[in-house]
Amino acid sequence: MFFPKYITMNKPTDFSKYLSDFLVKYLPHERGVSINTLTSYRDSFVLLFRFLQEQKNIKAEKITLQTLTKDMVVEFLDWIQSVRKCGNATRNQRLASIHSFCKYIQYQHPENIYELQRILSIKVKRSHKPHINHISEDGMKLLLEQPDPSIKKGVRDLALISLMYDAGARVQEIIELTPSCFHFDNKDASTVRIKGKGNKTRVVPLSKSLVNILQNYLRKYGLKELSMAEYPLFSNSRQEKFTRVGITEILQKYAKMANAISSDLVSEKITPHTLRHSKAMALVKAGINLVYIRDFLGHTSIVTTEIYARADSEQKRKAIESAYADVLPKEEACWIGNKSLIDFLNGFKTDSGF
User: Fold this and answer.
1) Cα maximum dimension of the chain
2) What pLDDT is stored for residue 110 in this prediction?
3) Same domain, 144 and 208
4) Which of the pair, 242 or 185, is modelled with greater confidence?
5) Which of 117, 274, 278, 330 has the CA that lies 20 to 30 A from 347?
6) What would the mean pLDDT of 75-86 be, rounded to a whole number?
7) Of 59, 57, 51, 116, which Cα lies nearest the Cα of 77?
8) What is the pLDDT of residues 172-195, one digit of tens each?
9) What is the CATH number of the domain that holds 204?
10) Reported pTM
11) In the chain, % of residues over pLDDT 70
12) Do residues 101 and 160 share a domain?
C-alpha cells in the first residue's frame, strides 16, 4: 500500500502521527477495511493536503490537529464542489473519511474533543438517487451471444461476463478470484467463495450452465492444475490480474456489438456494475425473498437491497399506467355549473344545515 511520503518526517506533527496510525494500523488491522476503502480514505486526505496547500498556503508537513477545524473542513468540502466540480456523492465520501478519522482521534487525543465533535456534526448532503441501469434477461442473452467461443479470448470473455452476471459480483471481487475459490460438485451444488467489502466472505451458488462455461475456460487456460490454484482467475496478455478498466473495456466491446443488433435490449454504455444490478433485478422479478438477495449480493443492510424492489415496483406501476384503459364514467365537479368555485362554496350547505 502506498502512502504519501510526507506523512513520515524527521519531526512529525501530531496530525501526521495520528494520520499514519489511522491509515497503517487502525483501519487495516482493527477495522479490517478492504484495500479499496483504504485507498479511498488515503485519497481523501491527499485531496485535503492539496486544498490546504493551494488555498491556505499550509504545507503538509505543517498541518497539526489545531488546523483541523469545522470551518476549515466546510471550506474544503465547498472547494471540492465549486472548484473541482464534484457532486454530492463525492463530497459525502470525503466527509465520511474525515468523520472516521475524527472518531478515531477523539479517543486518542481527547483535548480536542470539542472541535472534533463540531466536525462530526457536519451533515451529509442529500444525493440524487441514480436510476438503476440494468439489462433485461433478453438483453443479457443477446450480450452473452457476442463472445466467439471458437477462439481462446472468446472463451475467456464469455466466462468473465457470465460469472459477473450470474454471481452478481462486483468488479473488484471478480479481479481477486483464483481457481481455488471454486467448489465444483456433480450434484448441482457448485459454489464460488467471494471476498467482498470489508473482507467479508460469502458463498454464492453457481448455475449448471455457468459451471459448464467455467470448466471449459479453466481447461482451455490450463487453470485446473493444482499449481495454478492461487493464480488470478482472469488475466491479461501479460499474465497480470485484470484491472477495472480492462474488464470494463471488454464488456463495452461486446455491449457495442449487441447494441448494433438491438439498441432496445442493450445500451452501448454499460459497466460491470450494470451486470450486478441486472442480476439483482432478475432475482426481485423472480420473487426471491429480499433477505436471500441481500446475502447473495453481500449487502451489509437489507435497506440497500430494497432499492431494487422499489425500482421494480416503479417499473410495474408505469407498465400498468401505460396499459390502463379509462373505462370509468367521467364525472364533472358539482360546482362546474356555478359562476366560480367561490360562488359554489358560498352557497354550499351540508345535510346538517351548517
Assistant:
1) 93
2) 85
3) yes
4) 242
5) 330
6) 94
7) 51
8) 999 999 999 999 987 678 999 998
9) 1.10.443.10
10) 0.63
11) 82
12) no
What total of structural domains would you count in the chain? 2
Which of 85, 120, 155 corresponds to the end of one domain? 120
Give domain status of residue 341, yes or no. Answer: no
Q: Are residues 70 and 44 in the same domain?
A: yes
113/142 same-domain check: no
**CATH number (domain holding residue 84):** 1.10.150
Which pLDDT tens digit goes with each residue over 248-271?
A: 999 999 999 999 999 999 988 899
Same domain for 161 and 294, yes or no, is: yes
- Residue range of the domain that includes 292: 137-319
89-94 mean pLDDT: 92
75 and 148 assigned to the same domain: no
The mean pLDDT value for 298-316 works out to 69
